[in-house]
From TrEMBL:
<protein>
    <recommendedName>
        <fullName>Nitrogenase iron-molybdenum cofactor biosynthesis protein NifN</fullName>
    </recommendedName>
</protein>
<comment type="pathway">
    <text>Cofactor biosynthesis; Fe-Mo cofactor biosynthesis.</text>
</comment>
<dbReference type="InterPro" id="IPR000510">
    <property type="entry name" value="Nase/OxRdtase_comp1"/>
</dbReference>
<dbReference type="GO" id="GO:0065003">
    <property type="term" value="P:protein-containing complex assembly"/>
</dbReference>
<dbReference type="InterPro" id="IPR005975">
    <property type="entry name" value="Nase_Mo-Fe_CF"/>
</dbReference>
<keyword id="KW-0535">Nitrogen fixation</keyword>
<comment type="similarity">
    <text>Belongs to the NifD/NifK/NifE/NifN family.</text>
</comment>
<dbReference type="InterPro" id="IPR050152">
    <property type="entry name" value="ChlB/BchB/BchZ"/>
</dbReference>
<feature type="domain" description="Nitrogenase/oxidoreductase component 1">
    <location>
        <begin position="20"/>
        <end position="421"/>
    </location>
</feature>
<comment type="function">
    <text>This protein may play a role in the biosynthesis of the prosthetic group of nitrogenase (FeMo cofactor).</text>
</comment>
<dbReference type="GO" id="GO:0016163">
    <property type="term" value="F:nitrogenase activity"/>
</dbReference>
<dbReference type="Pfam" id="PF00148">
    <property type="entry name" value="Oxidored_nitro"/>
</dbReference>
<dbReference type="InterPro" id="IPR000318">
    <property type="entry name" value="Nase_comp1_CS"/>
</dbReference>
Length: 446
């Protein structure tokens, strides 16, 4: 097991890569069809989230703010700001749902979201997401729980073929789609909550809309409680299973920490065979398993001699570390945004909750970086190569369609990492040759 240091030992973060709870909440609400996220706080908080997600997904992002400042928060309170914002949104775009979530300013003020929501006669879900607590994962999870708790209707019957899929926040839209299709291949009907696979999947719509387009519908959210199973993927969303079971105790909960690599996907297939009563998986599933096995053999030599720095949300760290370790990759350092029980299960030399300065201070310990856009400057300073993963990624387009999960995505992930490792070694050899040539030239001139 990894040596886990829960904190990096510093009194502050110098070069952070952490994202806030309100951003996680915004992303979750964007996975609901025709939903308008309403960030209750200062205008800059919403502007930052909107710009980040717009650049990452290369898509217009629907997001509104109550535009509270410190003076309004103290003298006027938040009730009026929320009510007026909800009224303006309803007059302009008529959403199916408004998702109100807080920030540090309004949480410090102590605004009563539940009380305000009870006075507003429009479809609304509220959730407390102060940005001085938690991070992207917890914001996503709290919002998912709020959607179920406030919208899902209690039920006492079961649809034996229905599964509610709850993905963690770091799964890209295409990964949610691939996972849903994979489960449906075993004969089930799947409802993903939240569902970014049809709202932020880089599809070209008929026109640019002012609301989220695609995702799980409000009607589907109301009818979740007749599912036979709820499947949670990622330690951060595990509590959502219990939230849904409160609506119908007959629902069975199956949890997976990740669905990456051979072992992670095998665990899902084994459960699907048991739940469906099938004796064998569909032929396409078996074929992709064999392809992943071949990919593991082909990439073993490149990845096995590479030391990695991983920078991501805890659930994403666990998934990537598992895929790399299966083919002999050594994770020298894993840096998480926040603390999580899953960190103790990551096989790495060292796991810390810290920032990119911590990684820069021990840059001799690793060769290749896998992390978000913020690791690019670290890679330049430390003269390392970096592979982009996680939020945000401003360097590359097509993030929504990049997938690392299941047998298929696992093969693509290993190929990309192995190729990056080989290019890194080629660059090192070239640099060493140039240094030798330079040394000879200096010697001759002397």
């Amino acid at each position: 097991m990894a040596e886990v240091r829960r904190k990096s030992g510093k009194p502050l973060q110098v070069n952070p890569h952490k994202l806030s709870q309100p951003m996680g909440a915004t992303l979750a609400f964007l996975g609901v069809d025709r939903c308008m996220p309403l960030m209750h706080g200062a205008q800059g908080c919403a502007s930052f989230a909107k710009v980040m997600f717009t650049r990452h997904f290369c898509e217009p992002i629907a997001l509104q703010t109550t535009a509270v400042n410190d003076v309004i928060a103290v003298l006027d309170g938040g009730d009026y700001s929320i009510s007026e914002s909800v009224k303006n949104i309803g007059d302009k775009v008529a959403p199916e749902l408004i998702g109100v979530h807080t920030t540090g300013l309004t949480e410090t003020k102590g605004d009563d979201l539940r009380g305000v929501a009870s006075k507003i006669d429009v479809p609304l879900v509220y959730v407390n997401t102060p940005d001085f607590k938690g991070g992207l994962e917890s914001g996503w999870t709290l919002t998912t729980q709020a959607l179920i708790d406030q919208l899902t209707e209690p039920c006492d019957r079961i649809d034996a073929q229905k599964i509610v899929l709850v993905p963690h926040v770091s799964l890209q839209p295409i990964e949610v789609e691939k996972l849903r299709d994979f489960i449906e291949a075993f004969g089930f009907k799947v409802v993903a909550v939240p569902d970014l696979s049809s709202s932020l999947d880089n599809h070209l719509g008929e026109k640019q809309a002012s609301l989220s387009s695609g995702g799980v519908t409000v009607d589907a959210l109301k009818q979740l409680a007749d599912a036979a199973f709820v499947v949670t993927v990622g330690a951060s969303v595990k509590p959502v299973g219990a939230t849904l079971q409160k609506k119908n105790p007959a629902i069975r909960h199956h949890h997976l920490d990740h669905v990456s690599g051979l072992q992670g996907t095998d665990a899902l297939v084994a459960w699907l065979l048991e739940a469906s009563g099938r004796e064998a998986p569909p032929p396409v599933v078996e074929r992709w398993r064999k392809r992943l096995q071949d990919a593991m053999l082909d990439s073993h030599f490149s990845i096995g001699q590479t030391r990695f720095l991983l920078v991501a949300e805890p659930d994403h760290l666990a998934a990537m570390a598992a895929s790399l370790r299966e083919v002999g990759g050594k994770v020298a350092l894993a840096i998480a945004t926040v603390d999580s029980p899953i960190l103790g299960d990551i096989e790495a030399d060292q796991v810390i909750v810290g920032d990119l300065e911590d990684a820069e201070n021990i840059s001799a310990a690793y060769d290749l970086i896998i992390g978000n856009y913020h690791t690019e400057s670290l890679a330049h300073r430390a003269e390392k190569r970096a592979v982009m993963r996680g939020f945000p990624n401003y360097e590359e387009i097509g993030n929504a369609l990049k997938h690392d999960v299941l047998y298929e995505g696992g093969a693509y992930f290993l190929f990309e990492i192995a190729n990056a490792a080989e290019r890194m070694r080629e660059a090192q050899v070239h640099h060493e040759r140039e240094q030798i040539k330079l040394g000879r030239a200096v010697s001759l001139s002397g």
